[in-house]
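It would be a great kindness if you could assist me with a short task in structural biology. The matter concerns a single protein, recorded as an amino acid sequence and a row of backbone structure tokens. The record follows directly beneath this note:
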Amino acid sequence: MFQLWKARRGRKSILATLAPFIEGSEARLGRIPATAWHNAYVLGFLSLLASLEARITLEGSLSSLALGLIQAETIAALSGESASVHGEEILTLSMEDDPQFLSGCNQAVSFHAALQRSYRAFVEPGRSAEWKSDMPYLQDDLDALWREMFEEKVMSLS
């Protein structure tokens, strides 16, 4: 039960981090097409990004069930679609070592590292994530990286 509570708390935190990037993408591209939310690369990118952020946010080990729940529910919340469908797709693509899924995972590692460097550099303990407004150039770098790793892939699917 504790793991499920942690998963819920983690998902909320992850959504607070990812939602502004998704909203920015939708402002630039229009609504993200439904097909993009089922694309192997996009699923790999977002699911691993959710996992990496969860491990940092929740500061501790998570069960496979909790991690899977975080991945599926995060993508479901961002897409407005069913978590069970996304969970099944993520599991299948992962077990099959799908090359596009793995490519998305690799890009997620790079994006998450940049995101964490930003936090470490500009967020002091006990301070909220105000760095986004304090350091606009840093946010510009993250936005450019997001456009390269997420939006370009979404645009190529249209």
